[in-house]
Amino acid sequence: MRLSxxxxxxxxxxxxxxxxxxxxxxxxxxxxVYDRAHIGNMRAFLFADVLQRTARVxxxxxxxxxxxxxxxDDKTIRNSTDxxxxxxxxxxxxxxxxxxxxxxxxxxxxxxxxxxxxxIGILRSHMIAMPRATDYIPAMxxxxxxxxxxxxxxxxxxxxxxxxxxxxxxxxxxxxxxVDAENFREGVRIDADEYERDSVSDFVxxxxxxxxxPSWDFEIDGVNVPGRPGWHIECxxxxxxxxxxxxxIHTGGVDLRxxxxxxxxxxxxxxxxxxxxxxxxxxxxxxxxxxxxxxxLGNFFTLHDLTSQGLDALDIRFAMLSAHYASVYNFTFDGxxxxxxxxxxxxxxxxxxxxxxxxxxxxxxxxxxxVFGELATDIHTxxxxxxxxxxxxxxxxxxxxxxxxxAMLAFLEELNGIFAVWHIGERPAExxxxxxEFILALAERRLNAxxxxxxxxxxxxxxxxxxxxxTLKDTKDGYTIERG
Length: 484
Ligand code: AMP
Ligand code: ZN
Fold this sequence. Notes:
single chain
Protein backbone atom coordinates (compact mmCIF):
# COMPACT_ATOMS: atom_id res chain seq x y z
CA MET A 1 0.00 0.00 0.00
CA ARG A 2 1.25 3.54 -0.79
CA LEU A 3 1.97 5.77 2.21
CA SER A 4 1.38 9.47 2.59
CA UNK A 5 2.24 11.83 5.41
CA UNK A 6 1.80 15.46 6.27
CA UNK A 7 5.04 17.19 5.38
CA UNK A 8 5.83 20.35 7.35
CA UNK A 9 8.07 21.39 4.45
CA UNK A 10 5.27 21.45 1.84
CA UNK A 11 2.45 22.03 4.39
CA UNK A 12 0.46 19.25 2.74
CA UNK A 13 -0.13 15.52 2.81
CA UNK A 14 2.26 14.03 0.28
CA UNK A 15 2.86 10.55 -1.05
CA UNK A 16 6.12 8.95 0.01
CA UNK A 17 8.48 8.13 -2.85
CA UNK A 18 11.65 6.95 -1.19
CA UNK A 19 15.01 8.16 -2.42
CA UNK A 20 16.11 4.53 -2.76
CA UNK A 21 13.51 2.07 -4.03
CA UNK A 22 12.22 -0.30 -1.39
CA UNK A 23 13.99 1.41 1.53
CA UNK A 24 12.81 4.17 3.82
CA UNK A 25 15.44 6.07 5.77
CA UNK A 26 14.27 7.89 8.89
CA UNK A 27 16.17 10.13 11.27
CA UNK A 28 14.54 10.95 14.59
CA UNK A 29 15.85 13.58 16.95
CA UNK A 30 16.41 11.53 20.07
CA UNK A 31 16.65 12.40 23.74
CA UNK A 32 18.95 14.91 25.33
CA VAL A 33 20.30 12.68 28.06
CA TYR A 34 20.55 15.24 30.86
CA ASP A 35 17.75 13.59 32.88
CA ARG A 36 15.11 10.89 32.49
CA ALA A 37 12.79 11.50 29.54
CA HIS A 38 9.24 12.51 30.50
CA ILE A 39 6.19 11.02 28.83
CA GLY A 40 5.84 14.11 26.60
CA ASN A 41 9.23 13.19 25.13
CA MET A 42 8.00 9.61 24.93
CA ARG A 43 5.15 10.77 22.72
CA ALA A 44 7.71 12.04 20.20
CA PHE A 45 9.60 8.73 20.21
CA LEU A 46 6.36 6.73 20.00
CA PHE A 47 5.29 8.77 17.01
CA ALA A 48 8.56 7.96 15.25
CA ASP A 49 8.13 4.31 16.23
CA VAL A 50 4.64 4.04 14.78
CA LEU A 51 5.75 5.84 11.63
CA GLN A 52 8.63 3.44 11.05
CA ARG A 53 6.49 0.39 11.90
CA THR A 54 3.86 1.62 9.42
CA ALA A 55 6.56 1.89 6.75
CA ARG A 56 7.59 -1.72 7.44
CA VAL A 57 4.19 -3.37 7.86
CA UNK A 58 1.97 -1.43 5.47
CA UNK A 59 4.51 0.05 3.06
CA UNK A 60 6.51 -3.20 2.96
CA UNK A 61 9.77 -1.24 3.07
CA UNK A 62 13.11 -2.04 4.56
CA UNK A 63 13.49 0.65 7.16
CA UNK A 64 16.77 2.30 8.09
CA UNK A 65 15.91 4.12 11.32
CA UNK A 66 18.35 6.24 13.28
CA UNK A 67 17.63 7.91 16.61
CA UNK A 68 20.46 9.97 17.99
CA UNK A 69 21.50 10.52 21.58
CA UNK A 70 22.26 14.18 22.30
CA UNK A 71 25.01 13.73 24.86
CA UNK A 72 26.55 17.15 24.47
CA ASP A 73 24.65 20.43 24.59
CA ASP A 74 24.09 23.28 27.04
CA LYS A 75 21.97 21.13 29.41
CA THR A 76 24.15 18.01 29.58
CA ILE A 77 27.21 20.17 30.20
CA ARG A 78 25.45 22.22 32.87
CA ASN A 79 24.28 19.11 34.73
CA SER A 80 27.44 17.04 34.46
CA THR A 81 29.87 19.70 35.57
CA ASP A 82 28.60 19.88 39.13
CA UNK A 83 29.04 16.66 41.06
CA UNK A 84 26.27 17.65 43.44
CA UNK A 85 22.88 16.12 44.05
CA UNK A 86 22.35 15.41 40.35
CA UNK A 87 25.23 12.96 40.41
CA UNK A 88 23.96 9.38 40.92
CA UNK A 89 25.87 6.45 42.34
CA UNK A 90 25.55 4.61 38.99
CA UNK A 91 27.67 7.31 37.32
CA UNK A 92 30.87 6.38 39.11
CA UNK A 93 33.22 9.02 40.43
CA UNK A 94 32.95 12.72 39.58
CA UNK A 95 36.47 13.78 38.55
CA UNK A 96 38.34 16.87 37.42
CA UNK A 97 38.07 15.75 33.77
CA UNK A 98 34.95 17.35 32.21
CA UNK A 99 34.93 14.87 29.30
CA UNK A 100 34.89 11.96 31.71
CA UNK A 101 32.11 13.56 33.75
CA UNK A 102 30.00 14.31 30.69
CA UNK A 103 30.34 10.71 29.44
CA UNK A 104 29.59 9.17 32.86
CA UNK A 105 26.61 11.46 33.42
CA UNK A 106 25.01 11.08 29.98
CA UNK A 107 25.62 7.34 29.71
CA UNK A 108 23.72 6.85 32.96
CA UNK A 109 20.66 8.56 31.43
CA UNK A 110 21.19 6.89 28.06
CA UNK A 111 20.83 3.53 29.87
CA UNK A 112 17.62 4.77 31.56
CA UNK A 113 16.34 5.85 28.16
CA UNK A 114 17.02 2.45 26.60
CA UNK A 115 15.12 0.84 29.51
CA UNK A 116 12.21 3.26 29.02
CA UNK A 117 11.81 2.69 25.30
CA UNK A 118 11.89 -1.09 25.83
CA UNK A 119 9.16 -0.70 28.45
CA ILE A 120 6.92 1.22 26.07
CA GLY A 121 7.40 -1.15 23.15
CA ILE A 122 10.06 0.62 21.06
CA LEU A 123 12.61 -1.91 19.87
CA ARG A 124 16.24 -0.90 19.83
CA SER A 125 16.68 -3.64 17.22
CA HIS A 126 14.44 -1.67 14.84
CA MET A 127 17.12 1.02 14.67
CA ILE A 128 20.26 0.68 12.60
CA ALA A 129 22.04 3.02 15.01
CA MET A 130 21.60 5.08 18.11
CA PRO A 131 24.58 7.41 17.64
CA ARG A 132 26.02 9.50 20.44
CA ALA A 133 26.89 13.01 19.30
CA THR A 134 30.31 12.87 20.99
CA ASP A 135 31.27 9.94 18.73
CA TYR A 136 30.73 12.05 15.58
CA ILE A 137 32.72 15.19 16.34
CA PRO A 138 35.10 14.79 13.35
CA ALA A 139 32.09 14.58 10.97
CA MET A 140 30.64 17.74 12.55
CA UNK A 141 33.98 19.51 12.12
CA UNK A 142 34.12 18.43 8.45
CA UNK A 143 30.65 19.86 7.87
CA UNK A 144 31.53 23.15 9.55
CA UNK A 145 34.65 23.41 7.36
CA UNK A 146 32.49 22.80 4.26
CA UNK A 147 30.02 25.51 5.30
CA UNK A 148 32.93 27.83 5.91
CA UNK A 149 34.55 27.08 2.52
CA UNK A 150 31.28 27.91 0.81
CA UNK A 151 31.16 31.26 2.56
CA UNK A 152 28.35 30.65 5.03
CA UNK A 153 30.32 30.55 8.28
CA UNK A 154 32.79 32.77 10.09
CA UNK A 155 34.99 32.60 13.15
CA UNK A 156 34.41 35.25 15.82
CA UNK A 157 35.48 35.47 19.45
CA UNK A 158 36.84 31.93 19.41
CA UNK A 159 33.58 30.35 18.13
CA UNK A 160 32.22 29.57 14.66
CA UNK A 161 28.87 31.01 13.53
CA UNK A 162 26.51 30.41 10.65
CA UNK A 163 26.25 33.52 8.51
CA UNK A 164 22.53 33.95 8.08
CA UNK A 165 22.81 37.16 6.06
CA UNK A 166 24.90 35.40 3.43
CA UNK A 167 22.63 32.35 3.52
CA UNK A 168 19.46 34.36 3.02
CA UNK A 169 20.93 35.72 -0.18
CA UNK A 170 21.41 32.14 -1.41
CA UNK A 171 18.33 30.35 -0.10
CA UNK A 172 15.19 30.63 2.00
CA UNK A 173 15.42 30.48 5.78
CA UNK A 174 12.06 29.70 7.38
CA UNK A 175 10.98 26.69 5.33
CA UNK A 176 9.33 24.85 8.21
CA UNK A 177 8.14 27.72 10.25
CA UNK A 178 7.55 31.18 8.88
CA VAL A 179 10.20 33.52 10.21
CA ASP A 180 9.34 37.21 9.95
CA ALA A 181 12.02 39.26 8.24
CA GLU A 182 11.50 42.01 10.81
CA ASN A 183 12.67 39.61 13.55
CA PHE A 184 15.97 39.08 11.79
CA ARG A 185 18.83 40.68 13.69
CA GLU A 186 21.63 41.08 11.19
CA GLY A 187 25.08 40.28 12.52
CA VAL A 188 23.84 39.43 16.04
CA ARG A 189 25.34 36.18 17.27
CA ILE A 190 23.47 33.58 19.31
CA ASP A 191 25.35 31.09 21.43
CA ALA A 192 22.40 29.32 23.07
CA ASP A 193 21.15 25.99 21.67
CA GLU A 194 17.54 27.05 22.09
CA TYR A 195 16.15 30.46 21.16
CA GLU A 196 12.89 32.08 20.13
CA ARG A 197 11.66 33.16 16.74
CA ASP A 198 12.01 36.81 17.61
CA SER A 199 15.76 36.45 17.83
CA VAL A 200 16.63 35.11 14.42
CA SER A 201 20.30 35.71 13.80
CA ASP A 202 23.68 34.06 13.27
CA PHE A 203 23.62 30.86 15.29
CA VAL A 204 26.58 29.02 16.69
CA UNK A 205 28.03 25.99 14.87
CA UNK A 206 31.00 25.50 17.17
CA UNK A 207 31.28 27.00 20.63
CA UNK A 208 34.65 28.17 21.87
CA UNK A 209 36.06 26.23 24.82
CA UNK A 210 35.14 27.45 28.30
CA UNK A 211 36.98 26.67 31.50
CA UNK A 212 35.77 23.45 33.07
CA UNK A 213 33.82 22.37 29.99
CA PRO A 214 34.67 19.48 27.65
CA SER A 215 36.41 20.61 24.46
CA TRP A 216 38.02 19.28 21.30
CA ASP A 217 40.70 20.81 19.05
CA PHE A 218 39.37 22.10 15.75
CA GLU A 219 41.45 23.28 12.79
CA ILE A 220 39.54 25.71 10.62
CA ASP A 221 40.90 28.27 8.19
CA GLY A 222 44.43 27.53 9.38
CA VAL A 223 43.74 28.20 13.06
CA ASN A 224 42.88 25.99 16.02
CA VAL A 225 39.53 26.84 17.59
CA PRO A 226 39.16 24.49 20.54
CA GLY A 227 35.56 24.00 21.62
CA ARG A 228 32.52 21.80 21.16
CA PRO A 229 29.67 21.47 18.68
CA GLY A 230 26.41 23.42 18.83
CA TRP A 231 23.28 21.30 19.08
CA HIS A 232 21.99 21.78 15.52
CA ILE A 233 25.16 20.73 13.72
CA GLU A 234 25.07 17.37 15.53
CA CYS A 235 21.96 16.13 13.71
CA UNK A 236 23.09 17.51 10.33
CA UNK A 237 26.36 15.57 10.53
CA UNK A 238 25.04 12.33 12.06
CA UNK A 239 22.16 12.01 9.59
CA UNK A 240 24.58 12.47 6.66
CA UNK A 241 27.07 9.89 7.96
CA UNK A 242 24.47 7.25 8.83
CA UNK A 243 21.78 7.73 6.16
CA UNK A 244 23.41 9.95 3.53
CA UNK A 245 21.56 12.98 2.17
CA UNK A 246 18.91 13.40 1.09
CA UNK A 247 17.18 10.78 3.24
CA UNK A 248 13.43 10.24 3.42
CA ILE A 249 11.91 11.37 6.70
CA HIS A 250 13.08 13.48 9.63
CA THR A 251 10.97 13.43 12.81
CA GLY A 252 10.70 15.42 16.03
CA GLY A 253 8.24 17.33 18.18
CA VAL A 254 6.71 20.60 16.92
CA ASP A 255 9.01 22.60 19.18
CA LEU A 256 11.96 21.41 17.10
CA ARG A 257 10.70 23.06 13.90
CA UNK A 258 12.42 26.24 15.02
CA UNK A 259 15.27 26.73 15.53
CA UNK A 260 16.61 23.15 15.55
CA UNK A 261 15.25 21.80 12.27
CA UNK A 262 15.30 25.11 10.44
CA UNK A 263 18.98 25.44 11.29
CA UNK A 264 19.60 21.82 10.33
CA UNK A 265 18.21 22.45 6.84
CA UNK A 266 20.32 25.58 6.42
CA UNK A 267 23.52 23.87 7.61
CA UNK A 268 23.08 20.68 5.58
CA UNK A 269 22.19 22.55 2.42
CA UNK A 270 24.95 25.12 2.90
CA UNK A 271 27.56 22.38 3.51
CA UNK A 272 26.48 19.33 1.53
CA UNK A 273 24.64 21.24 -1.19
CA UNK A 274 21.33 19.33 -0.82
CA UNK A 275 18.27 19.48 1.40
CA UNK A 276 18.75 16.84 4.10
CA UNK A 277 15.28 15.24 4.11
CA UNK A 278 12.29 14.88 1.78
CA UNK A 279 9.78 14.83 4.64
CA UNK A 280 9.76 16.66 7.94
CA UNK A 281 7.16 15.14 10.26
CA UNK A 282 6.34 16.68 13.62
CA UNK A 283 4.25 15.42 16.52
CA UNK A 284 2.13 17.79 18.60
CA UNK A 285 2.62 18.15 22.33
CA UNK A 286 1.46 16.06 25.19
CA UNK A 287 -0.12 18.50 27.61
CA UNK A 288 -1.23 18.51 31.22
CA UNK A 289 -4.13 20.82 32.02
CA UNK A 290 -3.60 22.85 28.87
CA UNK A 291 0.16 23.26 29.23
CA UNK A 292 3.00 21.50 27.41
CA UNK A 293 4.51 18.85 29.65
CA UNK A 294 8.06 20.01 30.31
CA UNK A 295 10.85 19.88 32.81
CA UNK A 296 10.89 23.65 33.12
CA LEU A 297 7.19 23.87 34.09
CA GLY A 298 7.62 20.99 36.54
CA ASN A 299 4.36 19.39 35.32
CA PHE A 300 5.94 16.15 34.18
CA PHE A 301 5.81 12.41 34.78
CA THR A 302 8.45 9.99 33.66
CA LEU A 303 7.42 6.55 32.48
CA HIS A 304 9.08 5.20 35.59
CA ASP A 305 6.88 7.45 37.80
CA LEU A 306 3.77 6.02 36.17
CA THR A 307 4.76 2.35 36.14
CA SER A 308 5.82 2.66 39.79
CA GLN A 309 2.25 3.77 40.53
CA GLY A 310 1.02 0.51 39.02
CA LEU A 311 0.12 1.74 35.51
CA ASP A 312 0.83 -0.63 32.66
CA ALA A 313 3.20 0.88 30.07
CA LEU A 314 1.21 -0.74 27.28
CA ASP A 315 -1.88 1.18 28.39
CA ILE A 316 0.17 4.37 28.17
CA ARG A 317 1.37 3.38 24.69
CA PHE A 318 -2.17 2.57 23.61
CA ALA A 319 -3.58 5.78 25.11
CA MET A 320 -1.10 7.89 23.15
CA LEU A 321 -1.80 5.96 19.94
CA SER A 322 -5.53 6.54 20.42
CA ALA A 323 -4.95 10.19 19.53
CA HIS A 324 -3.65 11.41 16.18
CA TYR A 325 -0.01 12.45 16.47
CA ALA A 326 -0.73 15.88 14.98
CA SER A 327 -3.28 16.86 17.63
CA VAL A 328 -2.51 17.80 21.19
CA TYR A 329 -2.79 14.87 23.61
CA ASN A 330 -4.15 15.79 27.00
CA PHE A 331 -2.68 13.48 29.63
CA THR A 332 -5.04 12.36 32.43
CA PHE A 333 -5.16 9.26 34.61
CA ASP A 334 -8.79 8.75 33.53
CA GLY A 335 -7.60 8.74 29.93
CA UNK A 336 -5.16 5.92 30.69
CA UNK A 337 -7.90 3.93 32.48
CA UNK A 338 -10.21 4.35 29.46
CA UNK A 339 -7.40 3.27 27.15
CA UNK A 340 -6.90 0.14 29.22
CA UNK A 341 -10.57 -0.78 28.81
CA UNK A 342 -10.42 -0.22 25.07
CA UNK A 343 -7.17 -2.17 24.72
CA UNK A 344 -8.65 -5.09 26.68
CA UNK A 345 -11.74 -5.11 24.51
CA UNK A 346 -9.58 -5.81 21.46
CA UNK A 347 -7.55 -8.32 23.50
CA UNK A 348 -10.71 -10.25 24.44
CA UNK A 349 -11.73 -10.28 20.79
CA UNK A 350 -8.32 -11.76 19.89
CA UNK A 351 -8.67 -14.49 22.54
CA UNK A 352 -12.16 -15.32 21.28
CA UNK A 353 -11.04 -15.56 17.66
CA UNK A 354 -8.14 -17.73 18.75
CA UNK A 355 -10.18 -20.23 20.71
CA UNK A 356 -13.84 -20.15 19.66
CA UNK A 357 -14.55 -22.21 16.53
CA UNK A 358 -17.89 -21.64 14.82
CA UNK A 359 -19.44 -21.35 11.41
CA UNK A 360 -19.71 -17.61 10.72
CA UNK A 361 -17.51 -15.84 8.19
CA UNK A 362 -16.30 -12.25 7.87
CA UNK A 363 -14.69 -10.13 5.16
CA UNK A 364 -11.26 -9.77 6.76
CA UNK A 365 -9.71 -8.38 3.56
CA UNK A 366 -12.16 -5.46 3.65
CA UNK A 367 -11.43 -4.80 7.31
CA UNK A 368 -7.68 -4.93 6.64
CA UNK A 369 -7.99 -2.50 3.72
CA UNK A 370 -10.04 -0.08 5.81
CA VAL A 371 -7.74 -0.17 8.84
CA PHE A 372 -4.47 -0.06 6.89
CA GLY A 373 -5.90 2.63 4.64
CA GLU A 374 -6.33 4.90 7.68
CA LEU A 375 -2.79 4.19 8.87
CA ALA A 376 -1.33 4.65 5.39
CA THR A 377 -2.87 8.14 5.25
CA ASP A 378 -0.88 10.21 7.73
CA ILE A 379 -0.80 7.44 10.34
CA HIS A 380 -4.35 8.06 11.49
CA THR A 381 -4.28 5.69 14.48
CA UNK A 382 -7.62 6.89 15.97
CA UNK A 383 -9.48 6.33 12.70
CA UNK A 384 -7.85 2.90 12.33
CA UNK A 385 -8.97 1.99 15.86
CA UNK A 386 -12.47 3.29 15.16
CA UNK A 387 -12.67 0.81 12.24
CA UNK A 388 -11.58 -2.03 14.54
CA UNK A 389 -14.08 -1.14 17.28
CA UNK A 390 -16.92 -0.77 14.80
CA UNK A 391 -16.10 -4.24 13.48
CA UNK A 392 -15.93 -5.77 16.97
CA UNK A 393 -19.21 -4.14 17.98
CA UNK A 394 -20.97 -5.51 14.91
CA UNK A 395 -19.40 -8.96 15.34
CA UNK A 396 -21.07 -9.07 18.75
CA UNK A 397 -19.52 -12.32 19.99
CA UNK A 398 -19.59 -14.14 16.63
CA UNK A 399 -17.72 -17.45 16.33
CA UNK A 400 -15.92 -17.78 13.03
CA UNK A 401 -15.09 -20.66 10.74
CA UNK A 402 -11.51 -21.85 10.31
CA UNK A 403 -10.78 -19.76 7.22
CA UNK A 404 -11.99 -16.50 8.79
CA UNK A 405 -10.16 -17.21 12.03
CA UNK A 406 -6.87 -17.78 10.21
CA ALA A 407 -7.25 -14.65 8.10
CA MET A 408 -8.31 -12.58 11.12
CA LEU A 409 -5.40 -13.76 13.26
CA ALA A 410 -2.95 -13.07 10.44
CA PHE A 411 -4.34 -9.53 10.12
CA LEU A 412 -4.27 -8.94 13.89
CA GLU A 413 -0.66 -10.09 13.98
CA GLU A 414 0.24 -7.55 11.27
CA LEU A 415 -1.70 -4.83 13.06
CA ASN A 416 0.10 -5.64 16.28
CA GLY A 417 3.34 -5.16 14.37
CA ILE A 418 2.37 -1.47 14.50
CA PHE A 419 0.42 -1.06 17.74
CA ALA A 420 2.45 -3.62 19.71
CA VAL A 421 0.06 -3.71 22.66
CA TRP A 422 -1.70 -7.07 22.31
CA HIS A 423 -0.98 -10.73 22.81
CA ILE A 424 -1.89 -12.78 19.76
CA GLY A 425 -2.54 -16.21 21.20
CA GLU A 426 -4.58 -18.18 23.64
CA ARG A 427 -6.23 -16.61 26.67
CA PRO A 428 -3.85 -17.39 29.55
CA ALA A 429 -5.19 -19.62 32.30
CA GLU A 430 -6.43 -17.59 35.28
CA UNK A 431 -3.61 -17.30 37.73
CA UNK A 432 -4.33 -18.43 41.25
CA UNK A 433 -4.82 -15.31 43.30
CA UNK A 434 -2.10 -14.46 45.71
CA UNK A 435 -3.45 -13.32 49.07
CA UNK A 436 -1.01 -11.01 50.83
CA GLU A 437 0.81 -12.29 53.91
CA PHE A 438 -0.68 -9.70 56.25
CA ILE A 439 -4.22 -10.78 55.33
CA LEU A 440 -3.33 -14.42 55.97
CA ALA A 441 -1.86 -13.42 59.35
CA LEU A 442 -5.06 -11.54 60.29
CA ALA A 443 -7.13 -14.59 59.33
CA GLU A 444 -4.98 -16.89 61.48
CA ARG A 445 -5.30 -14.57 64.46
CA ARG A 446 -9.07 -14.51 63.94
CA LEU A 447 -9.21 -18.31 63.87
CA ASN A 448 -7.32 -18.46 67.18
CA ALA A 449 -9.60 -15.82 68.71
CA UNK A 450 -12.62 -17.89 67.66
CA UNK A 451 -11.14 -21.05 69.16
CA UNK A 452 -10.69 -19.15 72.41
CA UNK A 453 -14.30 -17.93 72.08
CA UNK A 454 -13.13 -14.27 71.97
CA UNK A 455 -15.80 -13.29 69.44
CA UNK A 456 -15.32 -9.53 69.83
CA UNK A 457 -11.66 -9.87 68.80
CA UNK A 458 -12.64 -12.23 65.96
CA UNK A 459 -15.17 -9.71 64.62
CA UNK A 460 -12.68 -6.85 64.83
CA UNK A 461 -10.14 -8.92 62.86
CA UNK A 462 -12.73 -9.78 60.21
CA UNK A 463 -13.55 -6.07 59.90
CA UNK A 464 -9.87 -5.34 59.25
CA UNK A 465 -9.75 -7.98 56.53
CA UNK A 466 -12.91 -6.59 54.91
CA UNK A 467 -11.54 -3.04 55.07
CA UNK A 468 -8.43 -4.21 53.19
CA UNK A 469 -10.66 -5.43 50.34
CA UNK A 470 -10.88 -9.17 51.09
CA THR A 471 -13.81 -11.43 51.96
CA LEU A 472 -13.39 -14.14 54.59
CA LYS A 473 -15.86 -17.00 54.76
CA ASP A 474 -15.94 -19.63 57.49
CA THR A 475 -15.99 -23.24 56.37
CA LYS A 476 -16.25 -26.60 58.16
CA ASP A 477 -12.45 -26.94 58.36
CA GLY A 478 -11.45 -23.30 58.79
CA TYR A 479 -11.98 -20.45 56.29
CA THR A 480 -11.51 -19.22 52.72
CA ILE A 481 -10.37 -15.76 51.63
CA GLU A 482 -11.03 -14.04 48.31
CA ARG A 483 -10.32 -10.64 46.95
CA GLY A 484 -13.30 -8.31 46.78
P1 AMP B 1 14.60 16.64 24.18
O1 AMP B 1 15.09 15.44 24.98
O2 AMP B 1 14.23 17.78 25.04
O3 AMP B 1 15.57 17.01 23.08
O4 AMP B 1 13.24 16.22 23.48
C1 AMP B 1 13.08 15.00 22.82
C2 AMP B 1 11.84 15.04 21.95
O5 AMP B 1 10.65 15.23 22.74
C3 AMP B 1 11.80 16.16 20.91
O6 AMP B 1 11.36 15.61 19.67
C4 AMP B 1 10.78 17.14 21.46
O7 AMP B 1 10.16 17.86 20.42
C5 AMP B 1 9.81 16.21 22.13
N1 AMP B 1 8.97 16.81 23.19
C6 AMP B 1 9.38 17.55 24.25
N2 AMP B 1 8.33 17.89 25.06
C7 AMP B 1 7.23 17.31 24.50
C8 AMP B 1 5.82 17.26 24.86
N3 AMP B 1 5.34 17.84 25.96
N4 AMP B 1 4.98 16.60 24.04
C9 AMP B 1 5.44 15.98 22.92
N5 AMP B 1 6.74 15.98 22.52
C10 AMP B 1 7.63 16.64 23.29
ZN1 ZN C 1 18.07 16.82 16.22
